[in-house]
Amino acid sequence: MYKSLLRPFLFRFDPEWVHHFTFNTLKKFGKTSFFKSLVKKKFQLEDSRLEREVFGLKFKNPVGLAAGFDKDAKLFQELSDLGFGFIEIGTVTPKAQPGNEKKRLFRLKEDNAIINRMGFNNDGVEAAVARLKKNKNVLIGGNIGKNKITANENAVEDYKICFEALYDYVNYFVVNVSSPNTPNLRELQDKEPLTNLLNTLQNLNAAKPKQKPILLKIAPDLTDAQLLDIIEIVKETKIAGVIATNTTISREGLKSENKLETGGLSGKPLTNRATEVIRFLSEKSNKAFPIIGVGGIHTAEDALEKLDAGASLVQLYTGFIYEGPALIKRINKALLNRSRG
User: Fold this and answer.
1) Was 181 annotated as part of a binding site?
2) In 3-state terms, what secondary structure has residue 87?
3) In this protein, which residues make up the domain named Dihydroorotate dehydrogenase catalytic (predicted)?
4) Confidence of residue 105 (pLDDT cuts 50, 70, 90)
5) Are 19 and 99 in contact (CB under 8 A)?
6) Catalytic site residue 179?
7) Is the pLDDT of residue 109 over 70?
8) How far apart are CA 162 and CA 41, in angstroms?
């Protein structure tokens, strides 16, 4: 029904407008007992065999929602009802910011892809905290970044502010230095500034009564040498793991007319590269740390490939938009079928 009726209708309209329309609709109906019951019955699949324990946290299933969809923690409960095992909010920044000028979100329908240059548009970390205080047992990741106006030499302070504000309200943290849509942000992926940033956050973490897992989200555009640096950095800073991968700046092999728009590309064109990065990190590190696999998951087979390559968990974003919420259940069903086999 989603792909045959709802998606063709929604895809007639501007992608960012559709995003807000969908949010408002789910928010309106998602709290009614009838709608909530209907959604859970149709999309949720609960089975103890789907549970995973990763970096000290228990996930009810390994399929999560990637950051960027629920930036401001406005819909995590309703999205969780669709069957996700965990929800990652953000990227949040210390202060609210509007992001880049519109139009900044583009569908590439021929390629089953999206290009975005949103630019960390969000209401600021305190607004997210206010909403997360109402959380009822949804496992939440907090994806944190820096404000656009913050110079790279001062970026650590922005990450510290977000860490302190979110600490009591998220289950794990994700350090985002890999978005292509904030000027010079990716420079923070270089070994020295990244090590300094992660060590600073780990020192804050160590001072807490209970440490929260800190993960690093990396770009798919890193070279093998840079990926080896990432392995060394994870080992040195003792962070909990890596999310592989963010969006790409590559445009190789695209067919759609929007292919030359600037921004980060997500979706099917990223499937193979994201899996390559996961496999490289897993093999070269000798599976030394957990990896969350994200990038181009549009089918259950795509998810299984990520898990087979070394991912402990997976996340959806563009595949969720193109395939609908039934994709979550299809992945979990495939995992159950595999466990029976």
Assistant:
1) yes
2) strand
3) 50-336
4) very high
5) no
6) yes
7) yes
8) 36
**25 annotated ligand binder:** no
Please, are residues 273 and 295 in contact by the beta-carbon 8 Å criterion? yes
| Sequence spans of domains, the chain | 2-340
pLDDT digits (tens, 9 = 90+) for 161-215: 999 999 999 999 999 999 988 989 899 999 999 999 999 999 999 999 999 999 9
Other C-beta atoms closer than 10 Å to the C-beta of 20 total 10
Catalytic residue among 178, 179, 282, 285: 179
Distance of alpha carbon 275 from alpha carbon 314, whole angstroms: 11
Cβ atoms of 93 and 125 closer than 8 Å: yes
Cis peptide before 102 (omega within 30 of 0): no
- C-alpha 24/C-alpha 284 separation (Å) is 44
Task: Report the length, in residues, of the chain.
Answer: 341
Backbone dihedral angles phi then psi of residue 144, each to the nearest 5 degrees: -120, 145
Residue 217 has a CB neighbour count (10 Å cut-off) of 25
Fold of 2-340: TIM Barrel (3.20.20)
The burial of 196, by beta-carbon neighbours within 10 Å (0-12 exposed, 13-18 middle, 19 or more buried), is given as: middle
Q: Rounded to an integer, what distance in angstroms lies between the CA atom of residue 169 and that of residue 177?
A: 22
pLDDT in tens, 281-340: 999 999 999 999 999 999 999 999 999 999 999 999 999 999 999 999 999 999 999 987
Instruction: Select from 65, 82, 105, 61 the least CA-distant residue to 243.
Output: 65
pLDDT of residue 341: 61
- Model pTM score: 0.97
Q: Among residues 271, 269, 234, which one has the least CA distance to residue 253?
A: 269
The answer to the question of whether 246 is labelled as a binding residue is yes
Round to whole Å and give the CA distance between 290 and 141: 15
Kindly tell me the number of DSSP H helices and DSSP E strands found in the chain: 12, 13
176 labeled part of a ligand binding site: yes
Task: Dump pLDDT digits (tens) for 141-154.
Answer: 999 999 999 999 99
- Count of other CB atoms within 10 angstroms of residue 288: 12
The H-or-E segment that residue 265 falls in is strand 264-267
